[in-house]
Amino acid sequence: EAGVAQSPRYKIIEKRQSVAFWCNPISGHATLYWYQQILGQGPKLLIQFQNNGVVDDSQLPKDRFSAERLKGVDSTLKIQPAKLEDSAVYLCASSIRPPSTDTQYFGPGTRLTVL
Amino acid sequence: AQSVTQPDIHITVSEGASLELRCNYSYGATPYLFWYVQSPGQGLQLLLKYFSGDTLVQGIKGFEAEFKRSQSSFNLRKPSVHWSDAAEYFCAANTNAGKSTFGDGTTLTVKP
Questions:
Q1: CA A62, A83, A73: angle at the middle one, nearest 5?
Q2: What are A23-66's pLDDT values in tens digits?
Q3: DSSP E strands: which ranges in B1-112?
Q4: Given CB atoms, is A28 within the 8 Å cutoff of chain B?
Q5: In this structure, which of A2, B14, B46, B57 has its CB flanked by the most CB atoms within 10 Å?
Q6: Which of the residues A21, A34, A101 would you substitute to probe the B interface, choosing the one with the greatest number of B C-beta atoms within 10 Å?
Q7: pLDDT value at position B72?
Q8: Are the C-beta atoms of residues A32 and A92 closer than 8 Å to each other?
Q9: Across all residues in chain A, what is the average pLDDT?
Q10: B chain contacts of residue A41, beta-carbon cutoff 8 Å
Q11: What is the pLDDT of residues B42-94, one digit of tens each?
């Protein structure tokens, strides 16, 4: 079974530029998550999708971050414009069902450096 | 607000020694609890999870964890650490509504 795929693995941009990350979850997984992991901290949930609908985006900085999951499969997370404090690893995860008891499977992440 | 605390930022143990990583949670009710491991450049891998029932749960790679409601703790243990266990370990909790909260992690170094 293929795991969660993410691209790119690394990205370096200047502040105020835009960037987009892509995630392809495990086939058949209805729930998809984007996390931000700042160095020295645990992952923080940015947004959770159930199929192509948003379940929770309470911690997504909506003035600069956006995410979509068209057709309920792969997803894109965008930052526009980027700030220095957005430097982090962006993790995508998926699960079969909403995550109360279900296992989340994580991708390898995208490491973003904002200069 | 719900929270997960991992009091130890960094732990060093000798290979073959026992290991215990601490995790405390603060929730209104008993959450669903998880331990993940993250190796450099890798995503998080689930080690074990607790939902209900037996408070001692077994996981992969020889790890186990014990849920103690009275102490709001879910500590991870391994009787004999291998060099390949060096990694960062995260405790996480999910509410019934499905919201996940992670601790800030404990980095494990294994001395030869």
A1: 50
A2: 999 999 989 999 999 998 999 999 999 888 998 899 999 999 99
A3: 3-5, 10-14, 19-21, 24-26, 32-38, 44-50, 56-58, 64-68, 73-78, 87-94, 100-102, 106-111
A4: no
A5: B57
A6: A101
A7: 93
A8: yes
A9: 92
A10: 104-105
A11: 789 999 999 888 899 999 999 999 999 999 999 999 999 999 999 999 999 98
How many whole angstroms separate alpha carbon A76 and alpha carbon B105? 27
For residue A105, the one-letter residue type is Y
Handedness of CA B21, B99, A96, B68 (dihedral sign): positive
Residue among B31, B38, B110, B97 nearest B69 (CA): B31
Q: Say what the pLDDT of residue B97 is.
A: 67
Within 13 Å, how many C-alpha atoms sit on residue B42's CB side?
Answer: 14
Q: How large is the C-alpha radius of gyration of chain A?
A: 13
Please tell me the distance from the alpha carbon of residue A31 to that of residue A36, in angstroms, as a whole number. 17
Is B77 within 8 Å of B65 (Cβ atoms)? yes
Scan for tokens 């200047």, then name that residue.
A14
